[in-house]
Amino acid sequence: MEESVTILEAIKKEFACKKTDIRTYSPLTLAYIGDAVFDLVIRTVVVERGNRSANNLHRKTVAYVNARVQAQMIDALQEALTQEEAAVYHRGKNAKPNTKAKNASDLEYSKATGLEALCGYLYLEGRQERLLALIREAIAGIGMEL
Question: What superfamily in CATH does domain 23-141 come from?
Answer without folding.
Answer: Ribonuclease III domain (1.10.1520.10)
